[in-house]
Amino acid sequence: MLKPLDLIIIVVYLLITIAAGILFGGKQKDTGDYFTAGGQLTRLFDTILVGLSIAATFFSGISFLAYPSLIYQGGMGIMVGLISFPLAWIVLRFWFLPRYLNGDGKHPYDRIETRFGYPVRATAATMFVLLRVGWMGTLIYAPTVALMASGGLSPAWFWPIVLVIGLSCTFYATLGGIRGVIVTDALQFLVIIAGIALTIGYVLWSLPTPLGQAWEGLKSAGQLQWFNPSFDVTQPMTLWAVLIGFTTANLAVYMADQMSLQRYLAAGNVRSACRAFEINLIGVVIVLILLALVGLSISAWYRTVHDPALPVNPDDVFPYFVASQLPSGVAGLILAAILAATMSSMTSGINALAGTLTLDFQSHFRPDMTPARQLRFAKLTTLALGLAATGVAGLVGQLGTIFDIAQILLGVFLGPLLACIVFSLSTWSIRGSAVIIGMLGGCVAGWATALSATASLWVAPATFVGAVVIAVVANAILSFGQVQEVHQKAL
User: Fold this and answer.
1) Quick one: pLDDT band at residue 489, thresholds 50, 70, 90?
2) 432-451 vs 459-490: helix axis angle to the nearest 10?
3) What is the CATH number of the domain that holds 13?
4) Looking at the domain assignment, is residue 340 inside a domain?
5) Within a 10 A sphere around the Cβ of 44, how many other Cβ atoms?
6) Is residue 428 part of a domain?
7) Count of domains forming the chain
8) 10 Å Cβ neighbour count for 484?
């Protein structure tokens, strides 16, 4: 059970986060200020904040719970994914960012519309909305269940916790805009690292057996094995699934997700955006390593400490350990860190989705609105999205494996979005209608992969490759049909 000190820490943290989000939001004059900070975050300190914000955005409460669970259950195989980050840096540094920011685009999907027209942009924006609304609902649900398990709370606490998390995020995301989101993201990222480090430190200090003996126990159990070279696509953590799946997913997140693209535009120029991305990479690698150590630490603990009440579901082991083993105060900080991870992703998702509905749809159909009215629409949209995501969280009944759910949700939609971005920035001659066909076909390929026995890490590669191949084939068919039509007219 949580102690009063733990509850005080959690409440104080929530209040500080809300206050920081509002105070640092600044004055917004238009939607450019609200969604991309007018591209003015170019100073070194601002760049550091943007980099930490990118890192915090994609380490949600789901990540906080999923990665220790994966390590606890299956060993270190997932950590092969670290190799994908240098690969992503090369692509972004030398290909993507110079092309994406070397233009007159002010909003994330402007480049898509410039290349292919509005229908392709609208299709991409719709996919992004579907992706992030479902993701945000799951995002609130997962840590809510973890907090209930940690505190030994009854089901009656479910909706109060959901409402506190969802409404808190919605409140300061609505008032603070992207500046407030970025500042609070950076704050939350530091809390995340502190919480993880405290968990590891406590286990190492309190472990009843010598560290060397615990290490040998993990080694003999196979939990320190990194490489599984199997080509079986049904196995979840093979070398190839992790390398190919993680690389594709990372490229999609950093190149096609509006939550990343917003921050590159806020950075203002290629140099600042590259620097922010590099800071993000450092932060991501640190957190991944720390989360892996959490999983190993908990595994070592329960190999030496017998607990008949230990949960069977590996997703519940970390919250249970926090509640049953950590001292008062430390447990509260860990739970605050889980909330930090959730809130940083939640607010970024709300802001990015509001940007999509405002800039990808409302601005197209109502271009005559004044900047002030457009800003008011953006804030109302932010509020509505936050409330909608909070409601969706209450409807999520069965999450299954948290990691698998996240991979499927991301993969099905981000793979086609990555294909669209690659087409829009390349010199490849392809029709917009073919790109739309490819994106829709990629989604179908992703759901087919997700519903099969194939491991969830293969969903993103399947949707990306499927979207590219279908788009190329569709373009060839459409081009052939046009040639035939011209030929017949000539005759």
Assistant:
1) low
2) 150
3) 1.20.1730.10
4) yes
5) 9
6) no
7) 1
8) 10
The domain in which residue 208 lies consists of: 4-399
As a dihedral over the C-alpha atoms of residue 278, residue 283, residue 286, residue 288, rounded to 10 degrees, the angle is -100
Residue 332 lies in a domain: yes
358 belongs to a structural domain: yes
* The two structure tokens encoding residue 414: 């981000």
CB 223 within 8 A of CB 299: yes
Residue partners of 305: CB distance under 8 A and separation at least 6: 208
Residue 291: is it exposed, middle or buried by C-beta count within 10 angstroms (0-12/13-18/19+)? buried
Give the SS3 label for residue 352: helix
> Which amino acid, 180?
G
The tens digit of pLDDT for each residue in 93-121 reads 899 999 888 866 667 788 899 899 999 99
Distance from C-alpha of 248 to C-alpha of 411, rounded to nearest angstrom:
9
Residue 318, sorted as left (phi over 0), alpha (psi -120 to 50) or beta, turns out to be alpha
Compute the distance between CA of residue 150 and CA of residue 162 in angstroms, rounded to an integer: 15
pTM: 0.79
Nearest to 37 by CA among 27, 45, 52, 22: 27
pLDDT, tens digit (0-9, with 9 covering 90-100), for 136-166: 777 777 777 777 777 677 778 888 888 887 7
User: Using CA atoms in the order 455, 461, 464, 469, what is the torsion angle rounded to 10 degrees?
Assistant: -100
